[in-house]
Amino acid sequence: QVQLVESGGGLVQAGGSLRLSCAASGRTSSIYYMAWFRQGPGKERTLVASIGWAGDSTRYGDSVKGRFTISSDYAKNTVYLQMNSLKPEDTAAYYCAAGPGYGDWPHWGQGTQVTVSS
């Protein structure tokens, strides 16, 4: 089993920055991709960014390109999401996900709330 624990959420003003972290433990040898998703109030959960565990193959949702950066630290089993130029519409619960392949996300964290005030 894989456990994912997110941290770093909070309240920030528009234009500000936050960095989310996701620490993986357990059977991390089964993980080849990790990702961040988000779900705003009354909205579906959508992909924000994904990355290969080796730090390659990054992908971003259109709404965050140029503002968010996903990165990984394989030695620490941790993935980060650096969020800059935050907007009120970025307000959501952010979830870390992991799996054996892109698009296959059997493991999920509990989520961390990000609130951007205008």
Describe the overall structure.
- Strand 7 and strand 8 (78-83) form a beta hairpin.
- This protein is 0% helix and 53% strand.
- The strands form 2 sheets. Strands 2, 4, 5, 6, 9, 10 and 11 form a 7-stranded mixed β-sheet that branches.
- It has strands at residues 2-7, 10-13, 18-26, 33-39, 46-52, 59-60, 68-73, 78-83, 92-99, 107-108, 112-117.
- The chain is mainly β and 118 residues long.
- The protein is built from no helices and 11 strands.
Distinctive features:
mainly beta; 0% helix; globular; 53% strand
Give a brief description.
With 118 residues, the chain is mainly beta. It has no helices and eleven strands.
**In percent, how helical is the residue content?**
under 10%
How many beta strands in the DSSP annotation?
11
**Order of helix and strand elements from N to C terminus:** EEEEEEEEEEE
Strand content: over 45%
Give the end-to-end Cα distance, rounded to a whole number of Å. Answer: 40 Å
Rg from C-alpha positions? Answer: 13 Å
Structural class, judged by helices and strands?
Answer: mainly beta
What are the segments in which pLDDT stays under 50 over at least 5 consecutive residues? none
Mean pLDDT: 95
The shape is globular
Distinct helical segment count: 0
> What characterizes the major β-sheet?
7 strands, mixed
Multimeric state: single chain
